[in-house]
Design a protein that fits this description.
3 copies of one chain form a homotrimer. Chain A is mainly α and 161 residues long. Chain A has helices at 3-15, 17-47, 63-66, 73-101, 106-128, 135-158.
Chain lengths: 161, 161, 161
């Protein structure tokens, strides 16, 4: 088989509609998660709240700088939202990838991806504003349910232990 | 190549026994990790221990609700177990996926997956009960060693820098 | 199609140079992240700083052991570096995998992988020594920018919503 034929074969994965949809939604939700780092950095700098002595060296010398080594409600809130993203997007990444490769129905798969990404974006909004409960809880359980639904469909069709 | 032929090609990945085994064990260990979120929510609600003011608004007004903004040994223990899962399952997810695609021997691969999933389930049990050390430490190092073994086999056969 | 033909097809993914490079760099950066667990364990044991009562049972009985349930600047520093790794390597893992499958130019792809892995290794060194800022900040933003660049290239060529 020639090199060109091989490359044609490889790009097939990206010509599969379910896989392309998974790639797009995953890239969006991971970029959203990366935004949380920027939000943390923004609040740390504007509120002068740092975790490391070397980070606040620019704001004063010696003891004067140490007063910025503290915690802040807003920074901790962003960090909790970020960790919650990690805890939920990692299972989506693994289970969603394998689910996408298991040959699911296109419209069912896209419905799963859209609901998950929508739920995680709403979760972040509800966490950062913050909106009263149960806004955040519902967003959390929607994303959680979508991932479990993909896991169930995957194991039902492809269990191999 | 027709559309039907292309779908046949794609499903080949899921007809590969190593990949199907990886998909099954990964789905199980990620579902187990997701269970930690439910465990945290359960302890937060039954022990009335919350991290956000909006979460305890239903338990009282104003200052009365603020007393539920606290930390609790049991909740913190579940959260540490959850973070330890993340720290160990993310490397397994990445290295295991690439290892599965590198054409390993089926029985060797399944042994790796089973040991890892068993070690992480035992780690969670040892953390939550808790069992005396070195139960948790041994479970941790078994899972850690399995992932390093897959990384070594992968780099030995396919290193390309 | 016979079984042998199928295995030939499957190993094609690992004969693709971009994918092999992604596999190698990912395995290295995930192994580096796993090293953070060992660093935490090392500092916990040498400094006798533990998070769980069962972990310090070997250092004394009852109240005498409880004094080791504390936090320590060095341990917390390693843990922050580890969490920062997780927050940044997870997006690289997901976006990088999909980017690798989207048929990018080999030298461009390898440049992305090398810069990311180099940035994360330098980030860890800058965090643990620690080096004065902006060493760590620059390492962070380099890795962050590389991942965003892959996300942009992927969405530009393959957006499917």
């Amino acid at each position: 088989m020639t090199k060109i034929e091989k490359m044609v074969e490889l790009t097939q994965l990206m010509e599969n509609e379910v896989f392309m949809a998974f790639a797009s939604y995953t890239t969006i939700v991971l970029s959203k998660m990366m935004f949380m780092s920027t939000a943390t950095a923004f609040y740390r700098l504007t509120r002068k709240v740092f975790a490391n002595p070397e980070d606040c060296a620019g704001f004063g010398k010696g003891e004067n700088a140490k007063k910025y080594l503290r915690t802040d409600d807003r920074v901790e809130r962003v960090r909790r939202a970020h960790l919650n993203d990690l805890e939920n997007i990692v299972p989506f990444l693994g289970i969603g990838l394998l689910y996408s490769l298991s040959g699911p129905d296109l419209s069912t798969a896209i419905l799963h991806f859209r609901l998950f990404v929508g739920a995680r974006i709403y979760h972040t909004i509800a966490y950062l504003i913050p909106l009263p409960q149960p806004n955040r809880a519902l967003a959390f359980f929607l994303g959680y349910g979508v991932t479990l639904s993909m896991a169930y469909r995957l194991l039902r069709s492809r269990l191999y232990l």
